[in-house]
Amino acid sequence: MKHLFTIEVEFGTPAHDETIRLRDDILRKPLGLQFEPEQLAEEYKDIHLACYNSQHELVGCMVLMIVNQENLKMRQVAVSEDAQRQGVGQFMVRRSEDIAIKRGFKKMVLHARDTAVPFYLKLDYKKKGRPFTEVTVKHYKMEKDLSN
Hints:
By secondary structure, this protein is an alpha+beta fold. The protein has one domain (5-108): Gcn5-related N-acetyltransferase (GNAT) (Aminopeptidase, 3-Layer(aba) Sandwich). 28% of the residues lie in helices and 36% in strands. It is built from four helices and seven strands; from the N terminus they run E-H-H-E-E-E-H-E-H-E-E. It has helices at residues 14-28, 37-41, 88-102, 117-122, and strands at residues 5-9, 47-52, 58-66, 71-79, 107-113, 126-134, 137-145. The chain has a seven-stranded mixed beta sheet with strand order 1-2-3-4-5-7-6, with helices on both faces. The protein starts with a strand and ends with a strand.
């Protein structure tokens, strides 16, 4: 997909609310789940990224949670259905890594759904440990060293 751009959106803004709707549609509703207000409230200190196309339509989003001084955790990666398999996810992951490096983080960690593992492997993430269940779905811990 051409002409994408990613911006950091502030917690509690209309742009942030739009990312929550996308995350809910793509990640929660298909599992019969919904966000609890307490879950969303905990994200006030996280980095929220929104990806837009050239028509300024939201096509993807993610949350980056600060784990500690060295590790940033990529969470809640969502791409709109009509923009999937067009490079949006790859674009967002690369932008998130750029942000992590600029802010001094050494490693990106994440919990990938089983179906997303091949996507992250192509982007040089490594699988760590055994699978586990999170939000009713099999996941793997994955990470990428950003210090090279």
